[in-house]
Amino acid sequence: MSEQNNIQKLTTASGKPYYEHENSLTAGPRGPILLEDFILHEKLAHFNRERIPERVVHAKGTGAYGKFTVTHDITKYTKAKVFSEIGKQTDVFLRFSTVGGEKGSADSERDPRGFALKFYTEDGNWDIVGNNTPVFFIKDPKKFPDFIHTQKRDPRTNTKSATMMWDFWSLNPESLHQVMILMSDRGTPVSYRHMHGFGSHTFAFINKDNERHFVKFHFKTQQGIKNFSDAEAGQMKGVDADQAQRDLVEAIDRGDFPKWTLKVQIMTEAEAATYKWNPFDVTKVWSQKDFPLIEVGELELNHIPDNYFAHVEQAAFAPAHLVDGIGFSPDKMLQGRILGYTDAQRYRLGANYEQIPVNRCPFAVNNYQRDGAMRMDGNGGSNPNYFPNSFDNIRADEAYKEPAQNLGNVVADWYDRNAPGEDDHYTQPGDLYRLMTTDEKAATVSNIIGAMSGIAGPKRDEIINRQLCHFFRADIGLGMAIAQGLGVNISAHAGSMQPAATM
């Protein structure tokens, strides 16, 4: 095939081929530009919108794809398919970051490092959104905006402020554990490859018998820990502000794939109830003497994305992204992040952010979410956008129901809103009908018949009969009048005519 045949035509975003990419349409060679030049409009308008809002925290970062391989059996603790058998491999994407700096800040700043990992499992995407430290500065999500404000810029001077930081820390002694880590050389890692990663929060494992254990995740670097001294970190800011980004890219490009060993700590519910520390306090660790590390598997990064923005910048992580066999705990900071992170991603990337390739589950996704900016699939086609319905075959699988949580004086569960004692939906509607005058009854019946006459399609009779059963249970006379008006054989509903008190 000739080189000419391989040439691709330059086109607009809508696919129209065009030629004048470098010269604007003008009235004469030196005249003003004409409004007609829509190519100019498209180029400038898209350019003005190339920057999406940067992350409020963790704005500066890098990322890579890789794989996770199970090396040890932990199926007695969790039914999560990602851990189902030794040797099982799962594709992953990992984003590293600093926390407080903007996108143009230096990689060697004294700061915690983000360690956000996405597993693409057959039960959906699972995110561990952690740091390179096992604890955090605060333990209640209401403090999070205030804390982050102290790590950003002073409202008056627009500079970083030691006063703001230490004022907040001095007023919140719970921060001391993390402050001690931050102020050690662990606060300035040499590279993302040479640091550990932690889930930080307490999560839950649920096994095939619906038994719950609490768990903490530890990713131990196989490259060894390397940190800058304070002087070295300061010098590196001036030498190469993107040093950690560059290090990861160059290491993977030369085949030096970084690896981490995943280990977990396991705590029973009974142990959690009596442990000397609150096991759900993210400012504290679990003693490894009390709860030894259990090896699980190996994480390897082996592929740098071909486009930073498409993959790393648009990557969206959230602690809300769990899979069957992994659950939450009463960790207050974790509970707050369940809302905060998904909300941040919807603001930054749009309601359909999980359809962006880096965030998309590679396996089946079935739901009733529709519309919104940048919808990237068929938007559900002609399928129903509500549940339950009489038309599709999407069903909630009871095998994925999670066990209740005993929280001491109360049990947290997904309680049936129509459980016994909450399931009389007919007495009061029937009483209302019986309170109506003869004319009011006639008008109501007529209105219902008129509205239900609009039901159409192959499920028409099924829907009408189901609704008639409700009317019969409320009042037999009401059901009979509506059935007659719709031309339905009343004898077919004889078994549904019992009054509400006998249901």
Automatic annotation (TrEMBL):
GO terms for cellular component: cytoplasm. Pfam families: Catalase, Catalase-rel. SMART domains: Catalase. Residues 11-395 form the Catalase core domain. This is catalase. Residues 1-14 have a biased composition (Polar residues). Belongs to the catalase family. It comes from the Bacteria. It comes from Pontibacter arcticus. InterPro entries: Catalase (IPR018028), Catalase_3 (IPR040333), Catalase_AS (IPR024708), Catalase_clade1/3 (IPR024711), Catalase_core (IPR011614), Catalase_immune_responsive (IPR010582), Catalase_sf (IPR020835). Its cofactor is heme. It is an enzyme of class 1 (oxidoreductase). GO terms for molecular function: catalase activity; heme binding; metal ion binding. The active site is at 58, 131. GO terms for biological process: hydrogen peroxide catabolic process; response to hydrogen peroxide. Heme binds at residue 341. Its EC number is 1.11.1.6. Keywords: Heme, Hydrogen peroxide, Iron, Metal-binding, Oxidoreductase, Peroxidase.
